[in-house]
Design goal:
Shape: globular
Radius of gyration: 12 Å
Structural class: alpha+beta
Distance between the termini: 13 Å
Number of domains: 1
CATH topology: Metal Transport, Frataxin, Chain A
Number of strands: 5
């Protein structure tokens, strides 16, 4: 796993310190598309039934939304995450 943001999210220690733009870039690299409604960025993929709705908190991502994304990464083994890392 060479993705620094993914490593930070999976470490569970930096949920309140993830930049919103970094989280958006990660979701794009994981194959999600998005649409915008107000300040809500709604990410979706034809490969997964989950819809991810995130909003910025200043220039940071909200901690509970980082946790939701971490759970989706684990659930679908995204970004090279395997069972040994869970």
């Amino acid at each position: 796993m060479s993705d620094k943001i993914l490593e930070l999210i999976l470490s569970r220690r930096h949920d309140t310190n993830i930049r919103f733009t970094d989280l958006q870039a990660l979701l794009k690299r994981l194959g999600f598309e998005y649409r915008v409604k107000g300040d809500h960025f709604i990410y979706y993929s034809n490969d997964f039934p989950e819809i991810i709705n995130i909003q910025p908190d200043g220039n940071k991502a909200k901690a509970y939304q980082v946790r939701q994304i971490r759970n989706i990464v684990y659930k679908y083994h995204l970004g090279g995450v395997d069972d040994a890392q869970i």
